[in-house]
Write a structure and sequence with these properties.
The chain is of the alpha+beta class. It is built from 15 helices and 21 strands. Strand 14, helix 12 and strand 15 form a beta-alpha-beta unit.
């Protein structure tokens, strides 16, 4: 059964907005590179844009924590390349007829990096701590607790049906990594002090501001089946893996070109053509999520849906996306609240209201709204330059339709503070990272981005969360997205953007999904 994420609390906003997501794509310029028959290296060096505050995946959704901790820790379920939950440390699950009780059967013989076998007590301790800390987990599980039912079974009984359970457990951000019970019990408020998991790599050394070192876990027990997204068969194909702290993007790129680094975990978008044309480099498109224009529906002129429809009619999404992201490979002009790769969810509903680029229609809506030249405040940040560029083009398009627009620019932290005051802004250009279910979409969350309050959207999301079948869930989401585009219009989605990763052409097997996947990855000499 496919699940549905619950409402995400405010605590997670900053983390999710700055996180990265992936679509499992391979490199975009790997044709003609063949290392078959060559000798492989025993060490892989990856340059990351900063070091994490912690490698405890439970306490933060920050991208650098995710990139490192996913090597060490595993979940009961994880995501395949279509963002669907598949078993990892769990062998299977059963759910009661009323949808409230979930029983997970664990794989036997899985070892932690300390040599001890993973059993139900470890899973119970890990997941109950996760529920206490993670807003995503807490919103779904509430006061429910996991309990042991023998050495290889764990059970959780919910207060009400919540069919999002598997998706929440499989979510890659602030995930419930399974750790030894004694490590969990010793954890403080800032996270665990020992990094011991079941993953293909084990933690060895953290030299602050320089690198984090991992080593192949010789006793790793992979699941059966082909690698798929974050799941399937995993294998450490190097003996040692270094995550080097390299904040400067030019240093990361030059290090890649001189073979100092095998992988760069972050590549500036404006370097794409240079990297993509380099025969010694592979680039990887990693789906981030929606680039979006948020309407302030709490105060001001955009409380009138005709003003929202006027702005939407004026938007030329193709022009915005190209100006913001510089190259057509780095974006997709698409109206969806969910991406096309998310085959269980993607909807065509509302497409007729997308990318209208019709200033004359916009003027008709302005007349209906009684717009009289009031100044519209569009807020943006230059810390995410492509979001700022989107704001510049949006301003021009709205002005062509007869609106008067001013852009106020803030640092990202201040932007999020300003956004909480409905009297200080009217429009906002911002991005949202890919999520696995509709009820995790932050701009549909009540009283958060844009002060969305709509009983019909709330009721549809509740119905999706408690639905009893995939077909019913999809039909409800079609209704929601159709209502969103054709009637309520909480936002205008410009389309989807991508992050960039890169490697040398000596690297084979690397994929991306919500960040780099470095198991099943080899490096040739």
């Amino acid at each position: 059964m496919k699940g549905k994420l619950g409402v995400v609390f405010m605590l997670l906003i900053v983390l999710m907005l700055t996180a990265c997501s992936g679509d499992g794509q391979n490199s975009t310029n790997s044709e003609g590179n063949s290392n078959e028959g060559g000798e492989t290296k025993t060490v892989l060096r990856a340059a990351m844009p900063g070091q994490p505050l912690t490698m405890d995946p439970v306490v933060t959704a920050a991208s650098t924590t995710r990139y490192t901790s996913r090597l060490v820790y595993e979940q009961l379920y994880t995501l395949n390349s279509n963002y669907q939950p598949i078993p990892m440390l769990a062998q299977s699950y059963d759910v009661s007829e009323d949808g409230k009780t979930y029983t997970f059967t664990l794989r036997e013989g899985v070892l932690f990096h300390n040599g001890e076998e993973m059993k139900s007590d470890d899973v119970v301790a890990s997941l109950n701590r996760w529920i206490e800390i993670s807003p995503i987990a807490r919103s779904t599980f509430g006061d429910a607790k996991f309990e042991s039912d023998g050495e290889y079974n764990v059970v959780v009984e919910l207060a009400e049906r919540a069919s999002e359970v598997l998706d929440v457990i499989a979510a890659p951000k602030q995930f419930g990594g399974i750790m030894p019970k004694e490590v969990v019990e010793a954890a403080g408020s800032e996270g665990v002090t020992e990094y011991i998991g079941t993953g293909p790599f084990k933690f060895e050394e953290w030299k602050q501001d320089q690198y984090i070192k991992f080593a192949k876990f010789e006793d790793y027990k992979p699941v059966e089946g082909e690698a798929d997204g974050l799941g399937g068969k995993k294998e450490a194909l190097v003996d040692e893996l270094y995550m080097d702290n390299v904040p400067d993007p030019s240093t990361r790129l030059s290090g890649l070109q001189t073979n100092q680094y095998d992988v760069s975990l972050a590549v500036p978008l404006d370097s794409y053509e240079q990297m993509d044309a380099d025969p010694n480099v592979k680039t990887y498109k990693d789906l981030y999520g929606n680039l979006t224009l948020i309407y302030n529906k709490g105060e001001g002129i955009f409380t009138d849906v005709n003003m929202r429809k006027a702005a939407n009619a004026a938007i030329d999404a193709d022009e915005v996306l190209h100006a913001a992201l510089t190259h057509e490979d780095l974006y997709e002009a698409n109206h969806g609240y969910m991406h096309e790769s998310q085959t269980n969810w993607y909807s065509e509903a509302g497409k007729e209201q997308y990318n209208l680029a019709d200033p004359e229609l916009a003027k008709e809506y302005l007349e209906k709204a009684g717009y009289d030249g009031e100044e519209i405040v569009l807020i943006a940040t230059r810390e995410n330059e492509y979001q700022y560029n989107a704001a510049i083009v949006t301003k021009e398009q709205l002005e062509k339709a007869g609106m008067k627009v001013r852009i106020d620019v803030y640092d990202f932290a201040t932007l999020l503070e300003i956004e909480q005051d409905p009297n200080k802004w009217d429009l906002l250009t911002i991005s949202f990272s890919t999520v696995t279910t509709p009820s995790q979409i932050l701009y549909l969350t009540p009283n958060q981005h844009g002060f969305m309050e709509n009983e019909k959207i709330d009721s549809l999301l509740d119905a999706i969360r408690t639905s009893s079948s995939d077909e019913e869930s999809k039909e409800l989401f079609d209704q929601l997205q159709d209502y969103g585009w054709n009637e309520y219009l909480p936002v205008t989605n410009y389309g989807f953007s991508y992050d960039l990763r890169a490697s040398t052409n000596k690297v084979e097997g690397m994929t991306v999904l919500d960040g780099p996947i470095l198991w099943n990855t080899k490096v040739f000499k």
